[in-house]
Design goal:
There is one protein chain. This protein is of the alpha/beta class. It has one domain: FAD/NAD(P)-binding domain (3-Layer(bba) Sandwich). The chain has a 9-stranded mixed β-sheet, with helices on both faces. Strands 2, 3, 9, 10, 11, 12, 18 and 19 form an 8-stranded mixed β-sheet that branches. Strands 4-8 form a two-stranded antiparallel sheet. A hairpin with a 2-residue loop joins strand 11 and strand 12. Helix 3 packs across helix 4 and helix 3 packs across helix 9. The longest helix is centred in the N-terminal third of the chain and has 25 residues. It comes from Falsiroseomonas tokyonensis. InterPro entries: FAD-dep_OxRdtase. This is NAD(P)/FAD-dependent oxidoreductase. It is an enzyme of class 1 (oxidoreductase).
């Protein structure tokens, strides 16, 4: 076959590669009308909160309008890092939030990674977890200065060399490309199989007494005089002492205050056909997880069995179908790693991530509602951590308030949750990357 369709392998699917091994399954438990804690959102944050509550003897009810784990929790790239998962470690953070608070956020992020690894071991979560490290490529020479500062910030927080800069001459030791002008490696980072992880997390939450019910949509809620809540769903009413919102990129009209503070953005991924481990290692010699510094960033990695490459990015700043986005991502991949020219793709999919206007994750309490929202594209470790933070808020007695709970949760005038401005942002980002010298070769295979 020739032409645009040549890049698609026979049987190409517009569903996540991850679902081949761990498809989201319906949770068909009866919907109770009373709950100690009602958690809206059956992704990583909601399940993590339910698990932590259950360990302390509090049984939560988790509802989701889709199947449990259906959203970005089982669609993401499965890349993990410490502070890199809890907001963008940027040079301007100290100016924006103050040096002390930023230091606390970085320290909390690094500790969250180790707590995450301990959770996997303690609960025996089957999810292909590996400590591989993460390489971040510098898309332009000036980006190296930012990476140097990020490495210094991370190392200062841990008191050890957890991150180091890679000069341009050594980039080939990390990735088979001429596109990056150097990079940074974070050692406290790794990868897992996200669909297996969210499935195992759900099973663990259920073991501790959580009730999981899929196919239930929140329609509205009201706070009662005693501080409890009554939630109206399309399957009936639920009275709950506590209410938790963990809907992230799928936050709907039932929670307008939160929706006004979240920017849902579609992120797209592809999976190549099986290449064999030798060819994958030629492209990605150290089998890490990968990202870069562009405004329109790439994120990619080997599959857990090291036989494929999974590649993601913002293929479009308007909603488009996964097949069209897959063709764009394939072009990006081959432009970055020319050795992959001619490789076909078997899967292309998308999922919504949620950004905050300050590009930081947010956890806290608003008018009695506990929330963990805004993964900003890096949610596996972060949302697991913030789910625990929410649980500890409800349980009380936490020795330390999360540094992220002290952040204001900003919005913008007239914004209602519909990101009409994203095409404009995308155009500006493309221009910025081009001004920095980044070019993508047109055409495909």
């Amino acid at each position: 076959m020739t032409g645009p369709d040549a890049l698609f392998a026979p049987g190409f699917r517009e569903t996540p590669y991850w679902w081949e091994a761990a498809p989201p399954a319906p949770a068909a438990a009866p919907l109770p009308d009373i709950a100690e804690v009602l958690i809206v959102g059956g992704g990583i944050a909601g399940l993590s909160a339910a698990l932590e509550l259950g360990r302390q003897g509090v049984k939560a009810l988790v509802i989701d309008r889709e199947t449990i784990g259906w959203g970005a929790s089982s669609r993401n790239g499965g890349a993990l890092s410490g502070a890199g998962s809890l907001g963008k470690v940027r040079a301007d953070l100290a100016e924006a939030f103050g040096k002390q608070l930023v230091a606390e956020m970085v320290e909390e992020g690094e500790a969250a990674y180790e707590e995450f690894a301990a959770l996997i071991a303690r609960e025996n979560l089957v999810c292909d977890f590996v400590r591989s490290g993460r390489f971040v490529g510098a898309h332009a020479p000036k980006a190296m200065e930012g990476l140097k500062r990020r490495a210094e910030m991370l190392n200062a927080a841990t008191g050890a060399e957890e991150a180091f800069v890679v000069p341009r001459a050594a980039v080939a030791e990390e990735i088979a490309t001429q596109k990056y002008h150097g990079g940074m490696v974070m050692l406290r980072a790794g990868g897992l199989h996200p669909a297996k992880y969210v499935r195992s997390l759900a099973e663990a939450a259920a073991r501790y007494g959580a009730t999981l019910v899929s196919g239930v949509a929140l329609q509205s809620y009201a706070r009662q005089p005693d501080g409890s809540f009554v939630a109206a769903t399309d399957k009936g009413r639920i009275a709950a002492k506590h209410l938790v919102l963990a809907t992230n990129g799928y936050t709907g009209a039932a929670t307008p205050w939160f929706r006004r503070r979240l920017i849902p953005v579609a992120s797209y991924m592809i999976a190549t056909e099986e290449l064999g481990e030798d060819r994958v290692r030629r492209a990605l010699p150290k089998l890490r997880v990968y990202g870069d510094t562009k405004k329109i960033l790439y994120y990619f990695r080997p599959s857990p069995d090291h036989r494929r490459i999974l590649f993601g990015g913002r293929a479009s700043f308007v909603q488009t179908d996964p097949r069209r986005a897959a063709a764009t991502l394939h072009r990006f991949l081959v432009d970055l790693i020319p050795d992959l020219a001619g490789v076909r793709i078997t899967h292309g999919w998308k999922g919504n991530v949620a950004f905050a206007f300050d590009m930081m994750p947010h956890v806290g309490i608003q008018d009695g509602v506990h929330y963990a929202l805004a993964c900003n594209g890096s949610g596996v470790v972060g949302m697991t951590h913030f789910g625990r933070v929410v649980a500890r808020q409800i349980l009380g007695g936490s020795n330390r308030v999360s540094a992220f709970a002290r952040l204001n949760f900003p919005t913008r005038p007239l914004y209602t949750g519909h990101p009409w401005f994203m095409p404009l942002v995308g155009t500006a980002y493309q221009l910025r990357d081009r001004l920095d010298g980044w070019r993508v070769t047109k055409g495909g295979v």
